[in-house]
Amino acid sequence: MIDITLNNLTKQYNKSEPAVVKSLNMTVSRGDLVALLGPSGCGKTTILKMIAGLHSVSDGEVLFDGKVVNHIPAEEREVVMVFQNSLLFPFMTVAENIGFGLKMRHLGKEEIDRRVHEMLELIQMDGMGERKSHQLSGGQKQRVALARALVIRPQVLLLDEPLSNLDAYLRDEMRDLILQVHRDFKVTTIFVTHDQEEAVLLADKVALIFEGRLHQYGAVRDFYEKPQSERVASFFGNRNFIQGICSKQGIETEVGTLQSALAKDRHGEKVCLMIRPEHILPEKGKENTILCLIKEKIYMGTFVRYRIEFADNLWDVLDSPEQRAGYDEGKRGWFTFPSHRIWIV
């Protein structure tokens, strides 16, 4: 395992065009499982390729355990990358595909066979070593590609959209395998995804990328409860916004003064407030309570979704159907925004 530090990392393919990765700074601690999350085309895969040594660095540095590796060839970095398409050798068997890297390292046949057998057991394909790639399902191909990467015992594992080409059932299986691999091998792992749910379920930490820039990096919970901008909040889960100005009394908004400890020492500052739908209470409280029109009420099994209207705002509210009787569609009701749930973005 190693620490990975990206220091002002930049990639520009053509000087006449904008950089695809722009002054990115982040550290992945040894043994972490980190998601590079963002929309398609934001530079995520390019970042992986610079870490792997498959793309040159235009500016900045990639460091492994504090040592700059910009000019170290890919084959000397102890890094493996599993691509979105498994890229198995079609003329080789499953066992030969898995053992290819060991053969290139001139290990003995007995050691290669032993390690390949271990990998086949790990990916639950024991007894399928003699099959060719055309005889495998998409999920099996991804498993073989992962085994081929792990068999050489790398220090860093890079996964490019590992679940994107799989159906729901196979995604669950592959997700469990990645977690097992990370737990058993304790390898520093970075994976690329555009799927927020995938990032939440797999990662220790998330790096959110837009247009080649890092917008937030940290624990999954911070993205949900403490987003650093409106854009981050909007990308990571459902949310409600309202503009306000901080004062000594609280935060002045179009619906009155809302109380929040975050307004302290920000007198006169214009702010955007965010609250998640499930943090709003459909009841009258002691503070931050507003009378709203229930425009829509939908029973969704485990929760009830309200669409409420106040002062030309339409907000979503999620409530447990077992908690309280609730309000009827077309009626007015009180909704409370707990002060500790209001966040300034």
TrEMBL record:
Q: Which InterPro entries match?
A: AAA+_ATPase, ABC_SmlMolc_Importer, ABC_transporter-like_ATP-bd, ABC_transporter-like_CS, ABC_transpr_FbpC, Mo/tungstate-bd_C_term_dom, P-loop_NTPase, Transp-assoc_OB_typ2
SMART domains referenced in this protein's UniProt entry, alphabetically: AAA (SM00382)
Q: Which UniProt keywords apply?
A: ATP-binding, Cell membrane, Ion transport, Iron, Iron transport, Membrane, Nucleotide-binding, Transport
Q: Which Pfam families match?
A: ABC_tran, TOBE_2
- Which GO molecular function, any one, fits this protein according to its record? ATP hydrolysis activity
Name the coiled-coil region(s): none
Gene3D superfamilies named in the record:
2.40.50.100, P-loop containing nucleotide triphosphate hydrolases
Report the residue ranges that make up the ABC transporter domain in this protein.
Answer: 4-236
Q: Which GO terms describe its cellular component?
A: ATP-binding cassette (ABC) transporter complex
What name has this protein been given in UniProt?
ABC transporter ATP-binding protein
